[in-house]
Description:
Elements: E1 3-7, H1 15-26, E2 32-34, E3 51-53, H2 73-78, E4 81-82, E5 87-92, E6 100-101, E7 106-111, H3 116-119, H4 121-128, H5 132-155, E8 158-161, H6 164-174, E9 178-180, E10 202-205, H7 214-224, E11 228-231, H8 237-243, E12 248-252, H9 259-264, E13 268-271, H10 279-286, E14 291-294, H11 299-302, E15 309-312, H12 317-326, H13 334-341, H14 346-366
Parallel strand pairs: 1-2, 1-5, 2-3, 4-6, 5-7, 7-8, 8-9, 10-11, 10-13, 11-12, 13-14, 14-15
Helix pairs in contact: 7-12, 10-13
Amino acid sequence: MKIALVHDWLNQIGGAEDVLEVLVHKYPQSPIFTSIFAPDLMPERYRQWDIRTLWIDNLPIIHRRHQPYLPFYPLAWNGLYLKEFDVVLSNKSGFCHGLQFDDSTVHICYCLAPTRYVWQLDNYLGGEGLGKPTEMLIRPLVNLLRRWDYAAAQRVSHFIAISSAIRRRIKTFYDRESSIIFPPVDTSRFQPALQMEIEDYYLVVSRLIPYKRIDLAVQAASELGLPLKIAGRGRDLERLKSIAGETVEFLGYVPDKDLPRLIARCRALLFPGLEDFGITTVQAQSAGRPVIAFKGGGALDTVLPGVTGEHFDSMSVGSLKSVMARFDAGAYDPAQIRRHALKFDTSVFSRKITAFVEQAWHAHQNGGDFAWQDPLF
């Protein structure tokens, strides 16, 4: 089976790249097609991969500021024609699902999210803080992109969603059904601490940008007088510091080697934003720590109320405070929390994605309907 891997862009590290690394490890002989590749901004090991870029990779300063070129991405991807592969496996949050392929090829799209600034424009603009003139220019363009994005989604053979929330969005925006395979989390990095080692602080681990809603955690902890440590950096730092009380501590960037210990000793992880999945919620549970998360998005899949943590109902300081005020970290069993987290381990993702690809390809070869059979159930 000849497989091509497809990825939106390679100029930054995030959850999408975690998925890609697992796919590359699983299919090491497969080339990776991407719009742009900035080797100086990516881990050195990426330079050993067979990465093939589109013409858009040659545009000025696109490696460091690719957002101004977003309207050109559909044109670039639409011009990519993959005809020599049995399976195309795209890892999509942007436009890479819009490539062309033969009828003999199966295109499986692992959908991190339907393109956010196309389908959730108001949320995107609110987070970026763009002025009204810019918004007036963007909106007509986005209407055109929606039509292209929808048409591109109809060409995909099979969709896989990373969470229940994304599955609903795929149905709403693309009118397509999808299966769910949760993204890979390296749970082996995190282990529960001894009970005597648990310290008295809540924890946030996040980039400090507006849509993450770290302000809710800062205000709730400040008003309740509860200790809160915030690990991460970003453009929202100064604003968050301005509303923080004496019990809030900003740690800045925490190296990967120090993160497991910091997480394993917290009272609970706070996850106040609306995320498509939320890897940090699983990392905390891998360390046996409960999570207090907003009741929406990926947290509906990852956090089990009363078992591995709690949800707060509305994205408001009062709602989060009400949960934190009555929260008892000792009421949760670290071993049970970790068992739940293991369902999201990298090994589980790897087995499921392999089974999906093989089953979809065999069904395509035989000309029959495809109904995925989860190998772990």
